Sequence to fold (143 residues):
Amino acid sequence: MKFGHISMVARDTDRLADFYKAVFGCEDTVRRWTMSGEPVSRGNGVPNSEIYAAWLSLPGIDGPFLEIFQYKTILDCPVPAVNQPGYGHLCFEVENIHATRDAVIEAGGMPVGEVTDLGTGQSPVLCVYVRDPEGNIIELEQK
Fold:
């Protein structure tokens, strides 16, 4: 058994995929495409599914990837809270936490918290939470 991928549902797949490419260096692994039909609906349990999809590589690893789906019909929901049960956040280890936080905001993301040191005196670990343009939570870490 091995881990395959992380999937998120977007209101705008292209915008969200382009954000992750611009800020974190993710890359398209295949051409973006639309899937639909009875097998798709049977698999995900959503009648008449039509899904526009992007698959992005994640920086620094070979293997698991980030899948971004945009359903033709989307159920709206509130922006998730950091302490809400369910999907929590993606975490990226970065070289410069302040520059990356600024890049997230410049690319349409939003701040959540402040940069803080969660490490020990001997091994500092800077951390901050931000949101992507669709409100999903991202943790930035700098060792």
Notes: The chain has three helices and nine strands. Residues 90-142 form a domain with the 2,3-Dihydroxybiphenyl 1,2-Dioxygenase; domain 1 fold (CATH 3.10.180.10).
